[in-house]
Amino acid sequence: MDKIKSTDGKTQSEDSAVQQKQLAEVSVEKERRFRPTGKLNTSPLHGLWALTHRDLRKWYANPVQLLVSLIQPIVWLGLFGKALNFGTFIPASEEQSFFGTTSYFSFLACGMLAFIVLFTSAFSGMSVVFDRRFGFLNKALSTPVARGSIVMAKIFQSVGRSLVQAAIILVIAVALGMDVTHFTVLGFAGAFFAIFLMGMGLSALFTMLALRSADWQTQMAIINLINMPLLFASNALFPSKIMPTWLQYVVKVNPVSYANDATRQLLIGATGMTSLLVDFSVLIAFAAILSAIGIVLSWRFLSK
After folding, report:
1. What phi, psi does 100 have (nearest 5°)?
2. What is the DSSP letter of 235?
3. For the chain, which residues make up each domain, given as ranges?
4. Chain-wide mean pLDDT for the chain?
5. Taking each helix axis from N to C terminus, what angle separates 124-133 and 147-176, rounded to the nearest 10 degrees?
């Protein structure tokens, strides 16, 4: 019997062979697609850069956010710093004894570097809250990424933002009249290393406080509760020697004070409240201890 032909001129047997070949190709493709590509990467650093870059991209892709974050320290520099012109009624020798330098504006400009880092670090915890509210944190916790990497990514993105914003504030301060006679490359490197360490410790602190929080209002209350005492109970705005005795003790245990002290010694050659060795020792211990505690707490409290 003649073979029955299909509408396109092919025999049924040929059509059947073509269909079987196509099914075999689809089966091979599915097997290849779902075949494990290798052992899962369970390294503690796995996903760290991806998570850090995700948060940084949201920041630099929105220049309005950067501009708004710079307004407050610029206002402090331009209005508060210039309004308190101590040089008009205090002799230079007494101003030197008070501030460690003959320019209060330069003294304040270094304090504004810590100011911008302090307030930028505070919002590293807000990032955790919003990631939890919008469901991204649950997705991240479902991946092989280590929980410690999630915390460190929040810390590193905050520190990166802080360094960029501090550099911009420094340029603006120079334009407004900051003393540049003591500027050196080594001084810049040391000052920004001090800022880096302070940002690490503060970002770890605020991230820890947000690990179990899903309420942004609660987190904002915590930020306001901690930020203002850290700022005003430090030497960011005024030297500790003119403060009450009890407040001087608070200044000495405030890590922000040591970052301010280091940046002033390195950038404007001011007389420090202690040596640079002590400043950096305190800052390194502060950053290391708070970051380690943040990672340990993430293992226990960071959950879906």
Report:
1. 80, 0
2. T
3. 43-301
4. 79
5. 130
Counting every residue, how long is the chain? 304
What are residue 11's DSSP bridge partners? 5
CA 7 to chain centre: 68
Partners of residue 102 on adjacent β-strands: none
pLDDT, tens digit, 9 for 90 and up, residues 78-91: 777 777 666 665 66
pLDDT digits (tens, 9 = 90+) for 187-207: 999 999 999 999 999 998 888
Q: Which residues of 240-266 are buried (b: 16+ CB within 10 A; e: fewer)?
A: beebeeeebebbeebbbbbbbbbbbbb
Q: Which long-range contacts (CB under 8 A, 24 or more apart) does 168-171 make?
A: 168/70, 169/70, 169/73, 169/74, 169/77, 169/109, 169/112, 169/113, 169/116, 170/109, 170/113
Q: How many Cα atoms occupy the beta-carbon half-sphere of 4 within 13 Å?
A: 4
Flag whether pLDDT at 3 surpasses 50: no
Q: What is the pTM of this model?
A: 0.78
DSSP readout, 63-129? HHHHHHHHHHHHHIIIIIIHH--GGGTS-HHHHHHHHSSS-HHHHHHHHHHHHHHHHHHHTHHHHHH
| Contact (CB, 8 A) for 205 and 219 | no
**Terminal alpha carbon distance of the chain:** 69
CB 260 within 8 A of CB 111: yes
Q: How confident is the model at residue 65 (pLDDT cuts 50, 70, 90)?
A: confident
Q: Are 235 and 112 a contacting pair, CB within 8 Å? A: no
